[in-house]
Design a protein that fits this description.
There is one protein chain. The protein has 395 residues and is an alpha/beta fold. The chain folds into two domains: 2-173 and 369-390, Glycogen Phosphorylase B (Rossmann fold), CATH 3.40.50; 176-365, Rossmann fold. The protein contains 18 helices and 13 strands. It has helices at 13-27, 40-43, 63-72, 74-81, 113-122, 125-144, 153-163, 176-179, 188-195, 215-229, 254-263, 280-285, 301-308, 319-325, 337-348, 351-365, 370-385, 388-394, and strands spanning 2-6, 33-38, 52-56, 85-88, 101-104, 147-150, 167-169, 201-205, 234-238, 269-271, 289-292, 313-316, 329-332. The strands form two sheets. A seven-stranded parallel beta sheet has the order 3-2-1-4-5-6-7, sandwiched between helices. Strands 10-9-8-11-12-13 form a six-stranded parallel beta sheet, with helices on both faces. The protein is globular, with a radius of gyration of 22 Å. Residues 390-395 have low confidence and may be disordered.
Length: 395
Amino acid sequence: MHIFLNCLAASSASGLTYVRNVVPHLSSRPELRATLALSPQLRNGLGNPHNISFIEREIPAGAAGRFCWEQSVLPGIIRKSGADVLISAGNFAIGRSPVPQILLSGNSLYTSSDFYSDLRARGARRILLDTRVRGFFARRSVRWADCTVAPSKAFADALRGWTGGHVVSIHHGFDPEIFFRDKTRLPSTIQDKIDSGKDALRLVFVSHYNYYRNFETLLRAVPQIREALGGRDVQLILTCKLSSEENSGSYCPEAAAALIEHLGIAGHVVQLGAVPYQLLQQVIRACDIYVTPAYTETFAHPLVEAMACGLPVVASDLPVHREICGIAALYFPRFSSQLLAARVLQIERSPDLRKQLAESGLKRSRDFSWRDHVDQIVALAHELKHSETGYARAA
């Protein structure tokens, strides 16, 4: 079977993570051929597997330009490749695919009423309009595809209710051998910042800044935790910097930075900036509790990584978070800084609970596998190739 994988939209962290983890498992299957359409930047580091061909393209900048190019030009490239099945990454499908099409959908913003409310409250009209336009085509895309794959059951249910389309859930994976492979010491610029809070209760949140990760609720919890702990210090470690110069995209972090000053916690929030993936495990292992206040999510890779590092988790009470973490986390209402603080304190004050959550997390992290993910995607591709829909489309 010959699979065409459209990765031209894989430019964000999650898209890059997906491609770099899936390619090795596709190349390990000698019965497959694969063609990947991707940017020249993403091509670097993928090697030269014998059964994978790469089509490098610089396409028009921006979502609108890319979408138009994919709709008009890409079908001819797919036809010429002789592929049996198309896998479209990046939330948007081809309207008239020449072969059966699997859409990989991984953006919950289009279905999140919290996100739209947040944008209105912030006066972010341009992002609101852009999200609505993208959401229109994302919804159409689910209907255009023969099957849509979501990375969690909770998100699949939301997509199915939003579109009425054929949506299945296949969990994303985790590869501990890759995640823990690098033994390089952290650069002193990072290590010194972490060490600045000696004997502090260290909380860590892995994310670039955006609105839907709900940084403000987490920041408001910090002084509440400090007050409850009395003499012990608290250190919140972020893998971003809250300034527009340090953040790509349209999200403005200045309000979060101002909140830090207003709360008087500047000395307790450590802004590391972006941390290379191969060093992330060292940052997480240097901390005590992983926290995420996100109000919408599709899978949340850092949760699996934190569990694999043996950290207890405090997460906003989303169906996705409960699906991924199960009993390895304590949960709180997504906008309640008071209950977030209470869950952190509950773990800090109970060594037995901390141990129980850590052990459950280690066990749960082993349930996620990129090999299993690829096996299920390939099985779905085989099913579509030999279905009546596939034969009719090919004809």
